[in-house]
Amino acid sequence: MGNTDAGAPVIEVRSVWKIFGSRADEALEAIRRDNLTKTDVLKQFGCVVGVADASFAVGQGEIFCIMGLSGSGKSTLVRHINRLIEPTSGEIFLNGRDVNVLNDEELRQLRAETIGMVFQNMALLPHRTVRDNVGFALELRGVDSYQRSIAADETIAKVDLTGYGDRYPSELSGGMQQRVGLARALAADPDILLMDEPFSALDPLIRRQLQDEFLALSRVMHKTTLFITHDLDEAIRMGSRIAIMKDGVIVQIGTPEDIVTKPADEYVSDFVAGISRLKLVFAHTVMQPLEAYKANGGNGLDETLCPVADPETDLNALVDLSVDSEHPILIKDDGNTVGVVTKTALLRGIQGEP
Amino acid sequence: MTDTPADAELGLETGDTTPSLQERKLVSEFAGDKADYYGDTFVHLQQNRLSATHVNRSALLAGPFWGARRGNWTHFWIALLLDVSGLMLMARGLFADPEKSGEFNLLWGIAVFICGRLLTARFADQLYYRQYQSWRIDRAVNAGVSASRIQVGLALILALGPMLVYRATQIAPTLRECKRMWRAMGKGDEVSVGDRFNCWVIGEVPIGKNIQQPVAGGINDFIDWMTITFVTFFDAITIGIRGVLNLLELIFVGTPWPVMAFMLVLVAWRTAGKNVAIFTGLALFYLGMFGFWQKSMSTLSLVGAATLICVLLGVPIGIWCAKSPRIYAFIRPVLDIMQTLPSFVYLIPAIAFFGVGKPPGILATVIFALPPMVRLTVLGITQVPESVKEAALAFGATPRQLLWKVELPLAVTSIMTGINQTIMMSLSMVVVAALIAAKGLGEDVLFALQHVEHGLGLLAGAAIALCAMIMDRIVQGARKPDNS
Ligand SMILES: Nc1ncnc2c1ncn2[C@@H]1O[C@H](COP(=O)(O)OP(=O)(O)OP(=O)(O)O)[C@@H](O)[C@H]1O
Ligand SMILES: [Mg+2]
After folding, report:
1. Mind listing the pLDDT tens digit for each residue in B413-456?
2. How far away, in angstroms, is A74 Cα from ligand 1 center?
3. Cα–Cα distances in Å, from A52 out to A86, A88, A185, B178, B470?
4. What span, in angstroms and rounded, lies between the C-alpha atoms of B17 and B7?
5. Would you state the pLDDT for residue B439?
6. pLDDT at site A204
7. Dihedral, CA atoms, B7, B13, B19, B21, nearest 10 degrees?
8. Is residue A218 scored above 50 in pLDDT?
9. Vertex B96, ends B95 and B98: CA angle to 5°?
């Protein structure tokens, strides 16, 4: 069975292509040969490129965000993980097992036991109560109704909906329904969570609240999560790493700080332009090495008067230090001074310009 | 009137109606000829300033030729239809039967012709404006004026018009007259060209009867052969239907009326509430007071049996069709035929196969009442949102679990509507079924028809309607989830 050695990725996607249309294989060949763009493919073959050559790996317990504008192929990509969509080419491994070679029965088992999914449009079962919705995955597995309702009630409590078990989804607000969707995904205690824009349809306050609740839950449950969003703020709040998609292509994968400080191209830098960098960028990114500082005529540095911080301090904390002192901030790692952050460098760092 | 062509041209100078130069150019490119007139008219149309009496004079004078010249075939066909109708009426008035309402037809024809011209000329510019809009989207749409299109129009008019007008002056010969004529021709008698022409072109298509008779004979033989060959099969069906029916008759007819009435009112109350219970009580009172009790119960068992069979057949067929569009493409025309074929057509073979009595009556009812059951099941299942099905699959549902736990529960409203429709249609077949001795209330209606007993007919008819309403209200009540 799967090799779950520490460090081995739980989800691994290897150069997955998805092309919609009857001439998909032909189109794929042509793309590989002639490097066609999405519009070319649509014109020549009448096929839509959903995902183009996507590869990434997600480790145990990681929250991996996929971000991109509407139509960039996020939902299509995530549906490959549990094979709701078959790739035109490429492979998907879950715990080292190739998803695309599973037979029907194995696939059903995988979906029922290993993966929980939350949908963009919630897709609750309107004819079932909240409890029966939440217990749905367990019911499909054949768990008896007694155990099912215990498990369901526990999960309902986790998402803060205690008392709503006997209501129908239509009697709940949008935010509550989304929580039911989350509970349904969690109830069967899957290892992997696929969340397709779970909070996009909600107003900012409720979204914020659900994000916090999910992060808190996630810290406890430690599930490997693939989190889809079209909102960079959300991706940065939720994700340990972020993949940015454009027209089916993953243009950059990295930590929030990587994305913000080293955008791979114009598209990504446009995205990050409006993002507050205060909590994303750390001292080691904005500091000047001590030697360089001295070489630039910064000799009159009285180290005793300078505030001190370590390289992992974020800009927000550096601002606090800087406000209280006339002097530049010394960055010390294990007692050695490794760099200096001047006021200018700090302000530029916040602005995001060198 | 500001919108006759002359005035419109003045409007151009006043400035307030001048369209942007670009659009004006576009219109002139589109219209080709008389660009100024159409430029102004289109602007008036856009401004809703076209008066109610505005007509396009060229269209008024030229009729269908205007449409042909401008490539507006909608106008062409409507104008042609109206022109030719008018001419046909005039021709009939003048030549066909001058003494019998000849004048009326003549005047009526003139009126149709003139009104038709006025009407098509009134809306010619609107139609033309539409054409202009389509042309702006797609330059392949006809534009400008063209002599070749006039020729096409003329050819069409010459091909259709004279024949139609000629037809209006003639009386269609019957097939027998034609046969007599052909026999005379065979003997070498002189027959006028007009008569020969009429036999070929007016009236029945000449060879139709020659094909009909042998084919009908073949079908007769086939049915006879089936009756003999598949006697066991037909008997088995009869026994099956009778089994279902006997059970229901045991319940409805076999229960003494006080018990049955009480049960029905109780069921109505539990499923559909107080009002329906009161209504059911009153309706049952009517049935009892006018001596229809036994027959009503017999009808209810008949309808009940038919409905039961329809559900047992229709829901699985519906599920099957919903899962396989190809099967549905094949079944759908069959359903259409079942619903539209006059029931008398299959009553006759039904008698051949199953004899007379209740089972063939039920069978005929099932044929008529099954289609809505199938259709509404298909509708119910196909309208289950794709996203909900996807969610079920994502949690590992098997196809069977998907059907039972998601699709059928969500289709249940639609299926219940189907049952309702089936019940209603079954009741409407009660009188027809009585024709092959299926008994029940239909019998009384039939008797009333045959003996011109208006009173009995109305009373029995009302009884059928009440039975229908009782069943409908109870089933509809059961449909609401809060009552179940
Ligand atoms: N079943 C399908 N058939 C054809 N094209 C499809 C299909 N599903 C998706 N696409 C196309 O694939 C592309 C990616 O769609 P996808 O739904 O994955 O976008 P998305 O990133 O999830 O967008 P959104 O944020 O709006 O949900 C789009 O161009 C879409 O038109
Ligand atoms: Mg999406």
Report:
1. 999 999 999 999 998 888 888 888 888 899 999 999 899 888 99
2. 8
3. 14, 10, 28, 75, 62
4. 11
5. 86
6. 86
7. 130
8. yes
9. 70
Three-state DSSP class for A65? strand
Instruction: Please determine whether the domains at A60-79+97-272 and A283-351 fall in the same fold group of CATH.
Output: no
Per DSSP bridges, beta strands A288-289 and A336-341 are: antiparallel
Distance CA B50, CA B42 (A): 9
Mutate to test the interface with A, among B395, B398, B401, B482 (most CBs of A within 10 A): B395
Residues B128 and B145: beta-carbon distance below 8 Å: no
Fold type of domain A60-79+97-272: Rossmann fold (3.40.50)
Please, which pLDDT band fits residue B406 given cuts at 50, 70 and 90?
A: very high
**Buried (b) or exposed (e) across B256-267, using 16+ Cβ within 10 A?**
eeeebbeebbeb
Q: What is the pLDDT of residues A88-111, one digit of tens each?
A: 999 999 999 999 999 999 999 999
Length of chain A: 354
- Nearest of B119, B137, B122, B129 to residue B40 by alpha carbon: B129
Nearest-CB residue to B395 (from A126, A127, A136): A136
In this prediction, the answer to ipTM > 0.90 reads no
Question: Which stretch of DSSP H or E encloses residue A339?
Answer: strand A336-341
Give whole-number Cα distances, B82 to A98, B78, B430, B452, in Å. 71, 6, 45, 46
Torsion of CA B407, B320, B230, B225, to 10 degrees: 130
Q: Is the CB of A68 under 6 A from ligand 1?
A: yes
Question: Cα(A51) to centroid of ligand 1, in Å?
Answer: 9
Q: Which residues contact B371 (CB under 8 A, 6 or more apart)?
A: B335, B336, B338, B339
- The amino acid at residue B45 is L
Q: Where are the domains of chain A?
A: 60-79+97-272, 283-351
Domains of chain B: 51-169 (no CATH), 233-483 (1.10.3720.10)
Which DSSP symbol is given to A54? E
Averaged pLDDT score across all residues of chain A: 88
Fold of A283-351: CBS-domain (3.10.580)
Structure tokens at A308: 């001190």
Residue B76 vs residues B140, B146, B168, B441: alpha-carbon distances, Å: 19, 14, 22, 56
